[in-house]
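Blinded run. Sample ID left blank on purpose so nobody reads anything into the name before looking at the predicted structure. Input follows.
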Amino acid sequence: MGTAPAGTTVDALTSDGGIVAIRPVRPGDRNGLAAMFRHASADSLRLRFFAAPSETSLDAEVERLCRPETTRHLTMLAVEGDDLVGVASCESGDEASERAEFSLFVADQHHGRGIGTLLLEHLAARARRAGIQELTGEILPANRDMLRVAHDLSVPTWTRFDDGIFDIGLDTGADERAYTALDRRDRVSERASLRALLSPASIAVVGAGHRPGGVGHETACALREYGFGGPLYVVNRSGAQVAGLAARRRVADLPAPIDLLVVAVPADDVAGVLEQGAQIGVRAAVVLSAGFGEAGEEGRQLQHDLVRLARRHGIRLVGPNCLGIVNTDPRVRMNASFAPSVPASGGLAVAAQSGAVGVALLDDATRAGYGISSFVSLGNKADVSGNDLIAYWYDDPATQAIALYLESFGNPRKFARTVRALGRRKPVLALKSGRSASGRRAGASHTAAAAAPDATVDALFAQAGVIRPEDLGEMTDAARMLTGQPLPAGERLVVVGNAGGLNVLASDAAEAAGLTVPALSARLRERLQAVTKGAASTDNPIDLGAGAPAAAFAAAAEAVAGSGEADMLLLVVIGTRSNDPAGIVRALGEVVDRYPALTAAAVVVGAGELADRLGKRGAPVYGLPERAVRALSAASRYAAWRREPLGARPRLTGVRETRARAAVGEGLTAGAGWQPFERTAAILTAYGIALEPAATAMTAEEATEAAERIGCPVVVKSADPDLVHKTDVGGVRVGLTGPDEVRGAFDQVAAVGRPGSGVLVQKQITEPVELVAGVAHDPLFGSVVLLGLGGVHTDILGDTALRLVPMTDLDAGRMWRGLRGAPLLTGYRGSAAVDTAALEEFLLRVGRLAEDFPEIAELDLNPVLAGPGGVVAVDAKLRLAPIGAEPDSALRVLRAADA
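Blinded prediction complete.
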């Protein structure tokens, strides 16, 4: 009987926002388990044991749960603080069985909090890793709560009623329905958990001294000045008021309950503050104090201990070492930060790891006139992370768009799925630092080199619909366009302006940004000529001339807006001593207000301090045409992504996962690393991935015999699995037409590899297009699938497309269509078109293999030959590596305390 897969302790949220630790049962839990059963009601025990259990039966159940774990006996325990609140287990008496019987029990006073669902989620995940594909159980009809928990998991289930009992079966795998339901539960829990943080009823600032300039003092003043409406206190050593606010000497002296603590005391004192806060019902804390994870090993341990303390007491934590948080909702009016200014209320939610970047974003929002719904400075991101806030903002009615500044991902796989769901409702902008450190890995395969960290981030964002600006200025420009403005219906941009040179610059920038600047219809041009009476140009871009009066400018904009020939309208205004820029801007504002569904922006130069927004709808005004065009392009790309169907996980026939798993297991047992061709071929063919057969030869005679069996011409290549770039070092000979050539090539090719590796002999085939495909696995991001042009195009063009797994049925088509060389696949200049349906299936099978086997660290399929008759990999290199404690996107867990 095998050892159970590792089951470490993780923290998770209950549906009411509480925090429980989820872990396997330990021998020391006997007394706690016995007490939980002993204090249960008679009804609860009857529903669990189908009869009133005797003391002996309960003792036996406790002993069963406390047995050492194996792959056939798995347990999960939920602990809140020091209390055991629920337990789940599964048992299988047959080592070869893929089924196990599960049981579940939740303490009476904790029913209805989603604890049973959490336990089953985690139990199913561990069972799946142990090779158990289905959990089965028996449930009494009266146990409606248990039936609902099982069905709410939304994994494939079956139920059967027989002899007064429901039999039920739960698939331990997760499909799209399961992920959708899981994310819904996650959002409910996050909103409940973060309510005390972002919408507190009462606040206390701890460490608010009398001296102006201190972080605590300034934060307390900011809260009072901004108008927080609930009870507001300060805590300091003297117990004297600060800025007119009631004070206490200790947190424990505050009137309970206090929702939120804002902490600005020395790092060594923060834990004591939270301990006292727990006594008066504190549910959240913002730790402004520095001296934690950013301050070396001692600080990291202090931060770890602080998070463990907060989790034990059910307290959510922002920071430490952060700028604070803001909520501009008129019902809340909370400025719990020491930022220099707070912008007006609006629709943009902001999260930033860097305090300096947070200040820059808030300052720009104030100057440019767009509003903020909420702002969170994440600081060291010890607990609350971007993933938590994404779940919260999903249903936040005040938030119309989200801007994130990220230096790292806690769980990129969860981020990709949750932000993709959010992106279908609200645009997300993410500025990810670290582009300059994303070079290729020396000596890696083609796939691993192409899937460098920054390229992987780009792929993640592209799949999730996240807008990735190049810099902070581009981010703020796009945020203005995406907050409170309609999305473009297409890519057509019409420019109307009174500055010919700026019009041309705008048009050039649009073409470079992927927008179209279409010629206007004759009818529209005639209309423009009539209303402007002397425009320098009535084609796109429309040049009205510097002296155009406000009425003519507005008439031209009205004609374009009502024509149906523009998806986006860019109005370029240059102020001179001979025109009235303020009057023009007012007139144009009235026009854009009459067309609320048309995406519009303006560029105003040479006009002094005019409004940063146009019209009552607040269309953004920029100082340069390039900035406006980049923002419009970001909105257009996001709108196009939203119009695309998401796709679904494809159904693939002929997949023999058990056969592949056996081969992978053999490879890991043998020492992992690059695998011999025979094992690589066994793994690929088990998933229906076409690979040209090859014969291994250890001598020249064996090589010639293989060539005669296969039929010339043949290719002879090194069979050394550790040889990454065979062609570069003379490890491949092609076009061999007879025994003498094969014999002559053997010694040369075999000498390139390690002694005793031999060679591979393969039929030489040709197809119109040569591609490269493969997989690279990242411990954080998961596996990335690559497709690119092969041969001479590989290094010259760098023309590749990446997708993270899991891939949908539409991802593969988007991959090849996204290549710059895509015309080569569709019959370029009369050549035969590639069977693109076969190529898509090939990629989907590679993606499913990568999804099922994260142990595949690298897979390089190079070359892949594609033609009218199908697609086949001619060479394949596969590297296996054991997987560690990687993020599981199918589990609801909080950020690890030491992450």
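Unblinding after everyone has recorded impressions. The chain has a mean pLDDT of 91.
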